[in-house]
UniProtKB/TrEMBL annotation:
Keywords from the named record: Signal
Cited Pfam families: He_PIG
Name of the protein described by the UniProt record: Ig family protein
Organism from which the protein derives: Pedosphaera parvula (strain Ellin514)
MF annotations from Gene Ontology: calcium ion binding
Cellular component, GO, one term: membrane
Matching SUPFAM superfamilies: Cadherin-like
Signal sequence residues: 1-29
Cited InterPro entries: Cadherin-like_sf, Ig-like_fold
Length: 639
């Protein structure tokens, strides 16, 4: 379901889009992506006349370049004291509303603001932004207020406003339409994206069927003027100080008024599942029609969520006081309810749908979904690298007959849901990272191991808020140990070999479950490395086991031949650490060439010391251990 947005000026969606726009440039990234200080004034237009002032706000935000890159942030107003920016899921944000600009200026006057950040790599940084001149844009005004009080949702509606005096193409402008619960229904493109509006714009068209009948919406215009833009003081980060005007008014659609319902409602249409097989391209047989639909109801910010609700819809919906079949919750802050699947047929009509929640009827007036004419499958493919990491997800649009088509006009946005053995691995296409239908590829912003993926969901939401889902299942490769032969070892000489496996759900855990390794050798359960110095010779059979994170495991009988050595076993003793230096003693045999090797990961080794000792033991000093939490050492003998 769509997430609720804060119905106040300078909401987070606006800030994120502005920061993303101004910070895009080829500079080496640090801990901070961007930092912003914004002062805003708000207005409400209740008739065709001028808008009235309705409040003011201060916002400060620090956006890190990655999770936990920044540990805290604070703001110092001119002549004031430091104010801590509260931590949010996407950074650090301070927002405080005031009754008027006068009250805002008393607490946060114009002048130079300091923004302090503590980064895990960059350390403490303090940067300064000048917010002066009261550069608020001229108060905007919706010019077709009266028409906006009786909008026919079945037709396009163009929202218009007077040209903003003094505005330029360097000012930013965005329109949002939100429902009575604050949920964003439609908005003009984000700042810096194709089709985005600037201060010279005077109109925005809401496509037919975007709005629902009998509803009161909020039309909101935000106009931003930048006072300071600084991309040099903090290399890799952008600093912005800006002034904002926010104008709101009611927008009312014609039809039976159903009031403001609690929660959100949508219809979810589902296709039969496709498959990746054992490859990376989705396949399915055609023709392919919608298999079923269900009604979905979501409630946020309530308590004591009940276990059941009932759904009733128009006669064509198949819903008549129908109890939900599924219920779920998100950390106790929201709950969702879905009706049973309906497939007789899966093409409900428009009209009033009622959800009874806690004994109260919540009515939703839906336009005709016209799902029979929106049967489009999104067929995905995946590009992976040699390490089995997903590099790209790309897709084509297919009609129900299997023909490749362009993105239809009724598509609103695309969502991608990557599922794993233990739940959702990755989401794309959310409110902060919307994917337009014209885009047909996506580069994941986090690591996805392909063998950990069970399915990928490809979803499009149409312009009236309904969802069309298809899931593409991956045929899981069985877990297998791929090592068949072990290199020969020599008694008294260091030995190292990595066991390998494929399939299953990484990461792996290794063990020896029958017999044992030769004396002096051990198996690393995390890396699968057999290492050490064998103390006896002979042919040793043992059973190795690998287990994945889903609990699956497999065994393999392996054999290791240890040849008799010409020198006694080598041992390391007397380890000490002091003043960033590590000392230890090598005990072996005189007259032998020894190479002491060091590693931080048991994979890449570097020579630390090469010597031909004239005694059976010698000292080794490693002066480079500072800054490492652990280092590994091994001894190699030979020419």
């Amino acid at each position: 379901m769509k997430k609720l947005l804060t119905p106040l000026i300078g909401n987070k969606i606006f800030l994120l889009s502005l920061l993303l726009f101004v910070s895009t440039r080829p500079v080496q990234a640090g801990d901070v992506n961007s930092y912003l200080v914004l002062k805003g004034q708000s207005f409400f237009q209740s008739d065709a006349g001028s808008a009235a002032a309705s409040g003011a706000t201060i916002q400060a935000q620090v956006s890190p370049n990655g999770f936990n890159f920044v540990t805290n942030a604070a703001l110092l107003p001119p002549g004031g004291t430091w104010v801590v920016l509260p931590a949010k899921s996407d950074g650090f944000t301070l927002k405080q509303n005031f009754a008027s600009v006068v009250a805002l200026d008393a607490a946060y006057p114009n002048g130079t603001y300091a923004v302090a950040t503590a980064g895990v790599n960059d350390g403490m940084k303090t940067n300064y932004l000048s917010l002066t001149g009261n550069l608020y844009p001229t108060t905007p005004h919706f010019s077709n207020f009266n028409a906006a009080q009786a909008v026919d949702p079945t037709l396009d509606f163009t929202l218009t406003w007077d040209a903003i005096a003094g505005a330029t193409a360097n000012d930013f402008l965005q329109i949002q339409i939100r429902d009575c619960t604050g949920n964003k229904v439609i908005a003009s493109p984000e700042f810096g994206k194709s089709g985005g509006l600037n201060g010279l714009a005077t109109a925005f068209t809401i496509p037919a069927q975007t709005l629902r009948s009998g509803m009161t919406y909020t039309a909101e215009m935000q106009v931003v003027r930048i006072s300071t833009f600084d991309n040099t003081s903090y290399p890799g980060a952008s600093g912005v100080a800006a002034y904002l005007d926010d104008l709101q008014m009611n927008l009312i659609t014609t039809g039976t008024q159903v009031g403001c319902a609690q929660g959100q409602f949508q219809l979810v249409f589902n296709f039969a599942s496709g498959s990746f097989g054992s490859g990376t391209t989705g396949t399915i047989s055609f023709p392919q029609a919608i298999s079923y639909y269900f009604a979905l109801y979501n409630v946020d910010n309530d308590t004591n969520y009940p276990s059941t609700v009932t759904f009733t819809g128009p006669s064509s919906s198949g819903l008549n006081n129908t109890t939900n079949s599924n219920v779920g919750s998100d950390f106790g802050t929201s709950a969702f309810y879905s009706s049973p699947p309906i497939n007789t047929p899966p093409f409900p009509g428009g009209g009033i749908y009622t959800v009874v929640y806690k004994g109260m009827s919540n009515n939703f007036n839906l336009p005709n979904p016209d799902a029979v004419n929106e049967q489009v499958l999104i067929v995905p493919s995946v590009a992976i690298d040699a390490s089995n990491v997903v590099q790209q997800i790309y897709w084509t649009y297919k009609s129900s007959s299997g023909a490749t088509i362009a993105a239809p006009a009724f598509m609103g946005n695309i969502e991608i849901r990557v599922e794993g053995f233990n739940g959702r691995l990755y989401d794309a296409g959310n409110e902060q990272n919307r994917i337009a239908p014209s885009v047909t590829n996506h580069f994941p912003t986090q690591t996805i191991i392909w063998t950990n993926v069970t399915s990928i969901g490809m979803v499009f939401n149409d312009l009236v808020g309904n969802s069309y889902d298809s899931y593409w299942n991956r045929t899981l490769q069985p877990l297998a140990i791929t090592t068949t032969n072990l290199p020969i070892a020599t008694q008294g000489s260091f030995y190292s070999f990595l066991l390998s496996a494929s399939g299953g759900n990484q990461q792996y855990n290794w063990s020896v479950v029958s017999n044992s390794l030769p004396g002096g050798l051990t198996l690393n359960g995390i890396t699968g490395e057999i290492s050490g110095t064998p103390s006896t010779s002979g042919n040793f059979n043992f059973i190795a086991q690998v287990q994945d994170t889903s609990g699956s495991f497999t065994n393999r009988v392996l054999s290791l031949l240890v040849n008799a050595g010409n020198t006694p076993a080598i041992t390391l003793s007397s380890p000490t650490v002091a003043n960033g230096q590590f000392r230890f003693q090598v005990n072996g045999h005189s007259g032998v060439n020894y190479t002491i090797q060091v590693s931080t990961n048991l994979i890449n080794w570097a020579a630390l010391l090469t010597t031909n000792s004239t005694s059976t033991s010698f000292k080794v000093l490693d002066a480079g251990v500072g800054g490492f939490s652990r280092r590994y050492y091994r001894v190699q003998t030979g020419p």
